[in-house]
């Protein structure tokens, strides 16, 4: 029985050596460790104290660390899509055969367990590094390259490739790998992806340091047109004339997503940024570049995308609100107190103030995701948050009690109370706006 550390932990250890270490959003330096066991049987693993947990192929939990140890295996394509594979795990499967089934050369390296010190570190120059497919070289040269033609058997790998490009934006996709991905799209493999895996990979890509690279790679191979045609249509569509017409809507979307990453926005905000301008891809040509009514179209398309890929509810709801209201929020400086209150109500801000903060963050990403705007402040957020806090501070119970005292026998007591509360909130919003105007810069 021989045990090897494989995959991401080896890759990330070498990335540090090449001064390319990537700090993930959760603060960790690299992924969880993956282990492969060569020359063993399930019976031998159980006898050694490991607990079996794998359903599709033999995977075991270490008796003390609880890390996963998988028997070396090969895989064979049996049908289209992500689930169409047959696996073979046996003592005669070699480490090189196991590494051959992996997606990228940089993920197809291994180190014997004995090469790690007590803290789990290893020497990047250790001659025991197993690298049959040139992963170390590709790390050094910053190249994302498939291991074998078997890459084409799993369409999820297209999404993983795009996600890795978003993680390391200075890596290039090898030309032969891009050609293979285009062939996969042309043969319809992407159409057989299950929604859960698509969303999982898209979400991970959105959370990487340069989400725009994910879209660029998916566009380059044609997968974006299949998976997210609503997004793919945005390239070539002009922005409004006053928003730097040399940057089309697709490029603007790239800038917005990268601004969201720069501001460390959570996933729901980044997904809202992805969907906020979808309606511009369906603007009638005769009204370009004004995009009249694109907000409602964007909200409908965002709802469609969310349903198709089974996007979590919090992401879907935020995306619809941002798509529908981002234009009004951008122009909120000139709103009256009554109009400001109606905007807050449409965003459900009075009931969900924390979500409203996410709405404003997405709008800030949109405003600053433009040429020459990246360093500009977004005062709309502070004004609307101040308005929201003022409205929330109104003692609605006291207002209702006063109306009841003044009109004890009124048949329309409910509407009277509602109108009085709205009026009190409008006065509070007006006072908050005045305080902001008088505040020192």
Give an overview of the whole structure.
By secondary structure, this protein is of the alpha+beta class. Among the domains are: 2-135, Beta Polymerase, domain 2; 393-441. It is built from 19 helices and ten strands. It starts with a strand and ends with a helix.
Keywords, separated by commas or semicolons:
19 helices; elongated; six-stranded mixed β-sheet; alpha+beta; two-stranded antiparallel ribbon; 441 residues
Shape: elongated
CATH topology of the domain at 2-135: Beta Polymerase, domain 2
**Largest sheet geometry:** 6 strands, mixed
Would you report the number of β strands? 10
Helicity range of the residues?
A: 40-55%
Arithmetic mean pLDDT: 90
Low-confidence stretches: 19-30
Main-sheet strand order equals 3-4-5-2-1-8
Total helical segments: 19
The level-1 CATH class of the domain at 2-135: Alpha Beta
CATH superfamily of the domain at 2-135: Beta Polymerase, domain 2
* C-alpha-based Rg, rounded: 27 Å
Quaternary structure of the protein: single chain
Summary?
This protein is 49% helix and 8% strand.
SSE inventory with pairings:
Blueprint: E1 2-6, H1 8-17, E2 34-38, H2 42-47, E3 51-52, E4 59-61, E5 68-71, E6 73-77, E7 85-89, H3 95-100, E8 110-112, H4 135-141, E9 143-144, H5 156-167, E10 172-173, H6 175-186, H7 195-206, H8 211-221, H9 223-227, H10 229-232, H11 249-262, H12 267-275, H13 294-308, H14 313-330, H15 337-346, H16 353-368, H17 379-392, H18 396-406, H19 413-438
Parallel strand pairs: 2-5, 9-10
Antiparallel strand pairs: 1-2, 1-8, 3-4, 4-5, 6-7
Helix pairs in contact: 5-7, 5-8, 8-11, 11-12, 11-16, 12-14, 12-16, 13-14, 14-16, 15-19, 16-17, 17-19, 18-19
């Amino acid at each position: 029985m021989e045990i090897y550390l494989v995959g991401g932990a080896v890759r990330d250890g070498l990335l540090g050596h090449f001064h390319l270490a990537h700090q993930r959003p959760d603060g960790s330096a690299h992924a969880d460790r993956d282990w492969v066991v060569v020359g063993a049987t399930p019976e031998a693993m159980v006898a050694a104290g490991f607990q079996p947990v794998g359903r599709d192929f033999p995977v075991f939990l270490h008796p003390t660390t609880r890390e996963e140890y998988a028997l070396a295996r090969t895989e064979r394509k049996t049908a289209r899509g992500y689930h169409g594979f047959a696996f073979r795990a046996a003592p005669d499967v070699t480490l090189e055969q196991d590494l051959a089934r992996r997606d990228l050369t940089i993920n197809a390296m291994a180190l014997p367990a004995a090469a790690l010190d007590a803290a789990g570190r290893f020497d990047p120059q250790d001659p025991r590094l197993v690298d049959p497919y040139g992963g170390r070289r590709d790390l050094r040269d910053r190249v994302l390259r498939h291991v074998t033609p078997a890459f084409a058997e799993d369409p999820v790998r297209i999404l993983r490739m795009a996600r890795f490009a978003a993680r390391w934006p200075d890596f290039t996709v090898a030309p032969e790998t891009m050609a293979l991905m285009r062939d996969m799209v042309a043969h319809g493999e992407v159409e057989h992806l299950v929604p859960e895996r698509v969303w999982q990979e898209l979400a991970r890509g959105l959370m990487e340091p340069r989400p725009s690279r994910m879209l660029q790679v998916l566009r380059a191979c044609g997968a974006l047109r299949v998976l997210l045609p609503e997004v793919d249509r945005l390239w070539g569509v002009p922005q409004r004339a006053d928003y730097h017409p040399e940057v089309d809507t697709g490029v603007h979307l790239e800038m917005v997503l990268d601004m969201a990453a720069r501001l460390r926005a959570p996933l729901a905000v980044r997904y809202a940024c992805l969907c906020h301008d979808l309606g511009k891809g369906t603007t009638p040509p005769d009204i370009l570049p004004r995009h009249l009514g694109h907000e409602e179209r964007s909200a409908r398309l965002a709802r469609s995308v969310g349903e198709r890929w089974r996007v979590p509810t919090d992401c879907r709801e935020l995306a619809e609100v941002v798509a529908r209201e981002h234009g009004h929020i951008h122009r909120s400086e000139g709103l009256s107190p009554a109009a400001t209150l109606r905007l807050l109500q449409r965003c459900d801000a009075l009931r969900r103030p924390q979500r409203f903060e996410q709405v404003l963050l997405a709008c800030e990403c949109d405003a600053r995701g433009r040429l020459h705007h990246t360093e500009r402040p977004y005062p709309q957020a502070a004004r609307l948050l101040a308005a929201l806090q003022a409205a929330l501070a109104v003692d609605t119970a006291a207002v209702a009690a006063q109306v009841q005292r003044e009109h004890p026998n009124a048949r329309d007591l409910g509407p009277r109370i509602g109108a009085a509360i709205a009026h009190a909130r409008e006065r509070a919003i007006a006072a908050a706006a005045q305080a902001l105007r008088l505040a020192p810069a």
